[in-house]
Amino acid sequence: MDVTNTSGRRKTAIARVYLTPGNGTVTVNKKDFKEYFPSASQQYKVQQPFELCGLTGQYDVKAVLSGGGTTGQAEALRLAISKAIVELDAEQKPALRSEGFMTRDNRMVERKKPGQKKARKKFQFSKR
Predict the structure, then answer these.
(1) With 35 labelled, which of 15, 45, 69, 108 sits at a CA distance of 20 to 30 A?
(2) pTM of the model as a whole
(3) pLDDT per residue over 50-67, tens digit each?
(4) Neighbours of 67 (CB within 10 A)
(5) For residue 49, what is the enclosing H or E element?
(6) What mean pLDDT do residues 74-91 have?
(7) Given a cut of 70, is residue 1 above it in pLDDT?
(8) What is the pLDDT of residue 2?
(9) Kind and range of the H or E element at 73?
């Protein structure tokens, strides 16, 4: 049984993915992905790499997600699935790269600075 193991990250979310040949079952943290991601847009993000490559229903995905929120986790999972598909078939890489699925989005939350209300917002200035 051939298992492909990859990981993906987005913000503070980390996705570890195990891809095996199967019937298209996607399991996230021991739950069905439609139960884990109730939003239709997040479910669509998870399925995008398979639909783009025409591999819908050919591989089972077992994912372990940690950290971040649901949107970050869905995008981390999309990156991990894309990397696993490329590991199996390198000819899929140009199509996935053109859609931006192979690029790790490294935008993070900016830290709060001392003497300020938030990262960039200041406390209200009082002249008198």
Answers:
(1) 108
(2) 0.90
(3) 999 999 999 999 999 999
(4) 14
(5) helix 40-53
(6) 94
(7) no
(8) 86
(9) helix 70-88
Burial 16-29 (b: 16+ CB within 10 A, else e): bbbbeeeeeebbbe
How far apart are alpha carbons 65 and 3 in whole angstroms? 18
> Position 60: which residue type?
D
Domains of the chain (ranges, CATH numbers): 4-98 (3.30.230.10)
Work out whether the CA dihedral 85, 86, 92, 95 comes out positive or negative: positive
Beta 26-28 vs 4-10: how paired, if at all? unpaired
Confidence (pLDDT) at 113: 97
Tokens 């053109």 map to which residue? 98
Sheet of 31-32, strands arranged across:
4-10, 13-21, 59-66, 26-28, 31-32
Q: What is the mean pLDDT of residues 41-56?
A: 93
